[in-house]
Write a sequence for this structure.
């Protein structure tokens, strides 16, 4: 059973940066794909970024490409989401997710039902 705990959210102004962290425990971290999703009030959860178990493959939503960077440190059992040039529309609860490694493309990273474990979320609020 994998447990995930997000941290690093907060209230920032537009244009600022934040780095979210997702600490994992209870499994072999290097065996899991990691993903970040977000859910804004009144909207459905949406994919933000995903990274393969080795870190070699990364995927991004078009809305964050060029501004956000997903990474992982398998020695620290932690995934990160570096968010730069934040916009008010980035305001949401951000969730990290873990799914056992599977060989394939973006299909396995961009869909929430491809992940078996979820964190509790961390709030990111961007003011204009």
């Amino acid at each position: 059973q994998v447990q995930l705990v997000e941290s690093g959210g907060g209230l920032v102004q537009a244009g600022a940066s934040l780095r979210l962290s997702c600490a994992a425990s209870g499994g072999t971290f290097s065996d899991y794909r990691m993903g970040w999703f977000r859910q804004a009030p009144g909207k459905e959860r949406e994919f933000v970024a995903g990274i393969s178990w080795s870190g070699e493959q990364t995927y991004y939503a078009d809305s964050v490409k060029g501004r956000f960077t997903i990474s992982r440190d398998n020695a620290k059992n932690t995934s990160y989401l570096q968010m730069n040039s934040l916009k008010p529309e980035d305001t949401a609860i951000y969730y990290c997710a873990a799914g056992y490694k599977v060989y394939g493309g973006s299909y396995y990273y961009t869909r929430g039902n491809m992940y078996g474990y979820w964190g509790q979320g961390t709030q990111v609020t961007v003011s204009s």
Observations:
- The first strand starts at residue 3 and ends at 7.
- Residues 89 and 126 are 8 Å apart (CA to CA).
- The two ends are 40 Å apart (CA to CA).
